[in-house]
Specification:
With about 120 residues, the chain is an alpha+beta fold. The chain has helices spanning about 40-50, 85-100, 115-120; strands at about 15-20, 30-35, 55-60, 70-75, 110.
């Protein structure tokens, strides 16, 4: 679950928050989004699917300000050990992610999760 201060402010239509994160050692990134279930970011979801990213998690909840939130997680398998991304795959996949979110004006900053966060 992504930390949201409020559901009254969105980064883009239907998107409250976006996190591009990898479990250590940080070679294969996932897309984590907090979305508005009543106004889904359809074009982003379609672009992720077209880029080969598969939804692996969906969880709804009501925020403390009473707004509805749907957390969505996406990942794309690579050809490295444990379905990780090789360097060329990482470059191509990050370009896809940057284009998808850049096209809607959302700046992303990929990060590597802490061990505690990754395996909680």
């Amino acid at each position: 679950m992504l930390f949201l201060k409020s559901t009254s402010v969105t980064k883009a239509p239907g998107i409250y928050e976006v996190d591009i994160a990898a479990k250590p050692p940080g070679k294969t990134f996932g897309v984590y989004m907090a979305t508005d279930p009543d106004n889904p970011p359809t074009s982003v979801l379609e672009a992720l699917a077209a880029g080969g990213f598969k939804q692996v998690h969906s969880s709804g909840y009501t925020h403390k300000d009473r707004g509805k939130v749907l957390d969505l997680h996406f990942q794309k398998d690579g050809t490295d050990l444990f379905n990780g991304w090789k360097a060329d795959e990482a470059e191509a996949n990050m370009a896809i992610i940057n284009k998808i979110f850049g096209d809607i004006g959302v700046a992303i900053t990929p990060r590597v999760m802490s061990l505690a966060e990754a395996y909680a």
